[in-house]
Design brief:
2 copies of one chain form a homodimer. Chain A is built from 14 helices and 14 strands. Chain A is of the alpha/beta class. Chain A has 2 domains: about 375 residues, 3-Layer(aba) Sandwich (Alkaline Phosphatase, subunit A), CATH 3.40.720; about 90 residues, 2-Layer Sandwich (Arylsulfatase, C-terminal domain), CATH 3.30.1120. In chain A, the strands form 3 sheets. Chain A has an 8-stranded mixed sheet, sandwiched between helices. In chain A, strand 12 and strand 13 form a beta hairpin. The longest helix of chain A is centred in the N-terminal third of the chain and has 33 residues. Chain A is globular, with a radius of gyration of 24 Å. The interface between A and B is large, with 42 and 42 residues.
Chain lengths: ~550, ~550
């Protein structure tokens, strides 16, 4: 019995070993299952195994920062505007020819809210990351809600990446993260369901786009160094290109492993700093554009070049027909072309990133199968017409349910999804969902617009300004069907419509458990219910 | 090495043993912790260890089924009405003298919704068990919402019992359960956080109150046998008394174990069948009362006798000053005294159990420390005055946060609590929370009232009837400050108040993610927003 003289210790070792063995067996088993599933198709991610999904999320790219027209006339035909003639995005044109674009697609007005909406399927009012996440200090603002979600996503968050990972996908994050503050769990995409992370961290912009500057790593305090690209440091390579090479490498590896991939390609471009991408020198015969604006245009073109290389890669690997592409911006344009509330950077739309006008939150959106195929079973499940443009609305939180529906993700009960699948809008040539509602809630300051809620219902748009420093709020009302560029405020002349929207806006805010700006005593400033109504009953507080 | 010739098998055995050892050690450890905590006080559950909590939940007992007056005059003084002189509840009088009662306390209009609200702290609109649970078939009704929560609570539900259990309480359920359908997880209170269950199952009423009938177990199909009382079968004992003896036995055992107890004493009385409790023969000199009504009165008195025995038991065990008692009904009165919508069974209140009038959902409520003590630290944390009555509102979902606040329960994040602590109302002699709101949502049929929502704000009360079979809804509006017995419908004459309440009612329904009755196509029938508003904008559907 000598060998058992310390039975407890042996048992302990045995138990640890056993747990390890069991875990290994279980992993091997599930891998075998997933391989079997893949092998059932034409092999790997090429055939009718699960479809690959690539999301291209372009930072600070607004609706007009492209040669692809997204605005339409009253017959639903695309209309080219001057800015469409200024920017050069031939690969977006190529993608648009292969798929469908939405003329009215909303993101949040700033960055982190949009990114978390994409990952969660929730409006920012619900997930409560209602402004961008300053990596180093809580930036709720002087009257912002104390309980807003500065921490962003964490290891227990339900994310699209995690659900895709659980569904057998190889999940790849390339580019900007900005899901949580510095050193938080959420700052590393690998804690949010991504198997691979290249370049993602708490930062919202790169220290530098230049490889020769090691993307910001070679300064005394490299707070905005892009992580994970050490092999490119010191080289003559632009950040957009380095990320593209990494993305292609990981796509190739997925194909080699015969696993479907979910690639979240979140460009740092075209966010400031506006450093020129020298591969795409922009000429301005008019001499009207600033050096910054020229650099911005080159960032756009460099990003577009990356899109082309991704599409080429899918073609070359023979996976294009089994690869679904979503291309979109994360908030309104930040093009350095004029005042934030003017018709300028997103002309003819009014406003830019951060503002409460359409230019603050309308973004380009293209959905396409990288190569159309009538036979592919996944394309049969989500048909996407070629070269079409749709008036039907969409919003960034719709990607989650659209993808979840296609690949049948199991969404945990209790996780509320605000979006809905875009399948119907893609399929129908008639405008659909025009009675839909869009809520954009920004209870913070300082930014280009402060403490506001935007609520759109049909073509009516209400903007509610909380003005915590004053005794009463202000409202703006626009009829986008007649006034798409928000020039004529109807708040005073159409009080019934205004109050109707106000009442419904309150319902939506309540439904999403929104947090409000606070007054000097820290009490939430709920939106009023309209002038008439206020005078009848005292405005109630929720018990 | 002979002993290790089958190392995997040995390892397996070792692992099993180890897990068992670890579990035992962990249990012993936590018991030691909890003993240490108890010993810090005067020992056991007698001193300043955690306070014992008893909830007495009386089935189908309305506000007027007692000799204790709950209605008040305009100065806030209790007023005796004829029914108070008819029923005899000396032990409720005794408890009322020791504590505080609320004149306006709401439960849900039927049974299971109230029970789950008590356990979850949520309004039934949110937990979605919006009608009683038929044990054997889904009773949503012809136009009821398909996704209503017929299944009730389950093993993953956050319940008051489970949180108390986790906080070191010995958790005891005695009496009616009705938390889930037959053979469901939730049908056994032990799956919901109760250590002990006597008498609780899926049934909503006893097969028989008589021990000589084995409480319903001795019929060919004993669908409504009360479980767990076999030792009383065949004896001359009334169900109320048998349950009381069991409750006392478990309280005594808790004291012996020096563990605080949480006792959910949920009487089957005074629910139908109206079988006389022969210990309390009721005399009716007027000859006006039916045999059923006489039996009902004896059920009330038998329940009251049980309350007295529990209070005696606490006194005798010396734990009264450390024992908090909540006494309440689970819905409006079911006294067999007249038509459901008349001023009859709850006179002078209109309506009875199941109806949309006050008599349908107002219940007696008394909170008391079983013995007042100025020294007891828990009584300092939750002071309850003696012999007082309060106009301040309460509702059944307020017990959860009141108890949670007192004993500092850790409520899991993500679990929404609709109630709020009653501490302030207990403490203040002025009416408080009069701007509070109460929502009672019943999207089912057939019952005494069908497909309705009641919404009270301050003293205004709106009743919304969905009428799924007709093209438009109906509304009733009452000003309870002037018309507490709901005789004058103001819906036509006060349209502004009506529409104000309607709009706020919608907000509350939306906030609680309520489910609505459905039309013939299965589409939810949301409440309209009022006549004026409807004509301005098409009523939107939630995306």
């Amino acid at each position: 019995m000598k060998t058992l003289q310390d039975p407890l210790r042996i048992a302990r070792i045995c138990a640890v070993l056993l747990i390890a063995i069991a875990a290994t067996l279980s992993r091997a088993h599930s891998r075998a299952d997933s391989n079997a599933e893949n092998a059932a198709g034409q092999g790997g991610s090429k055939g009718d195994s699960k479809p690959n999904v690539m999301i291209v999320l372009v930072d600070d790219m607004g609706l007009m920062d492209t040669s692809v027209p997204f605005l339409i006339d009253k017959d639903g035909a695309a209309v080219e505007h001057p800015l469409n003639r200024w920017y050069r995005t031939p690969n977006m044109e190529r993608l648009a020819k292969r798929g469908v674009r939405l003329s009215e697609f909303y993101a949040m007005s700033v960055c982190s809210p949009s990114r978390i909406s994409l990952m969660s399927g929730q409006n920012s009012a619900r997930h409560r990351t209602t402004t961008w996440i300053n990596p180093d200090s809580n930036n709720r603002g002087p009257s912002g809600p104390p309980d807003w979600n500065w921490k962003g996503l964490d290891a227990s968050s339900v994310t699209l990446a995690r659900l895709m990972q659980q569904a057998g996908y190889r999940t790849i994050h390339v580019g900007k993260g900005h899901f949580g503050p510095r050193d938080s769990i959420g700052s590393d995409p690998r804690n949010l369901g991504f198997d691979i992370n290249v370049g993602g961290s708490s930062i919202g912009q790169p220290g530098s786009y230049y490889g020769t500057k090691s993307f910001g790593a070679e300064v005394p305090k490299p707070t905005h160094a892009v992580p994970g690209l050490d092999e490119y440091h010191g080289q003559e390579i632009f950040l957009t290109e380095a990320l593209t090479r990494e993305a292609i490498k990981h796509v190739q590896e997925s194909v080699r492993q015969e696993k479907p991939f979910f690639l979240n390609f979140a460009h740092y471009a075209v966010h400031a700093p506006f450093q020129a991408d020298a591969r795409f020198p922009t000429e301005d015969p008019t001499g009207k554009f600033s050096k910054q604006a020229l650099a911005f245009a080159s960032l756009v073109q460099g990003m577009d070049d990356s899109l082309g290389k991704m599409l080429d890669c899918f073609d070359e690997l023979g996976i294009a027909e089994n690869t679904l592409v979503f291309f979109l911006g994360d908030n309104g344009s930040d093009a350095p072309l004029g005042e934030p509330h003017a018709v300028a950077s997103s002309a003819p739309l009014r406003g830019k990133k951060g503002s409460h006008y359409e230019g603050g939150m309308r973004v380009p959106f293209i959905a396409a199968w990288a190569q159309t195929s009538k036979q592919n079973p996944w394309q049969k499940r989500l048909p996407i017409p070629q070269g079409q443009i749709r008036k039907g609305w969409g919003a960034i939180y719709d990607l989650f349910p659209t993808i979840a529906e296609l690949v049948q993700l199991e969404i945990p009960s209790g996780h509320i999804v605000d979006g809905s699948s875009l399948k119907t809008i893609f399929a129908s040539s008639e405008p659909v969902l025009l009675d839909r509602e869009f809520l954009m809630h920004f209870p913070h300051a300082p930014h280009r617009s402060n403490y506001f809620t935007v609520f759109r219902q049909g073509d009516w748009k209400l903007i509610y300004h909380y003005l915590p420093e004053k005794s009463s709020p202000q409202m703006q009302l626009f009829d986008l069907s007649k006034d798409p560029y928000e020039q004529t405020d109807l708040a005073e002349t159409r009080p019934k419509e205004r109050d109707n929207l106000l009442i419904r806006m309150r319902e939506k805010l309540i439904e999403q458990r929104s947090l409000y700006p606070v007054d000097q005593d820290g009490q939430a400033i709920e939106p009023t219910r309209g002038i008439d109504f206020q005078s009848v009953l005292p405005f109630p507080s929720t018990p």
